[in-house]
């Protein structure tokens, strides 16, 4: 499966206003992975499988704004000072996490950003709703979504009740 297959499966329609990826990358301090940009450029931010809510740069809801993602990691760093056991075991001290999606159930999906790493080499981490458990996937964001759609990938913390692969994609209502 390819990003185009995912776009086709979701019936994506490009958003009315294109995203300013140059501004987003400047604010985030990283190059956003090309596959993620292609997916958002094809259909905008929305909800996948009735469950996974993708973030977009400049989204009107701060909880869905990709540009707010660095603040999520700063909050994690504060929590980890008090409770270092909740930090992912395999996250190097010089790496950071950048949130790109969350779920209505409270899980957050992150890219692991290592110094000097190519944007196409970013692993995905899924934090459970309690912030106590982490799962790593050596996949891109779209690779994770493709794996869920094909039934080959399922984060352990994801709800079997709410995750529905028959409800592939719904765009967020226009603001």
UniProtKB/TrEMBL annotation:
Q: What superkingdom heads the lineage?
A: Bacteria
Specify the Knr4/Smi1-like domain's residue ranges. Answer: 16-127
Q: Which Gene3D superfamilies match?
A: SMI1/KNR4-like
Concerning Pfam families, the annotation shows: SMI1_KNR4
Q: Which InterPro entries match?
A: Knr4/Smi1-like_dom (IPR018958), Knr4/Smi1-like_sf (IPR037883)
The protein, known as: SMI1/KNR4 family protein
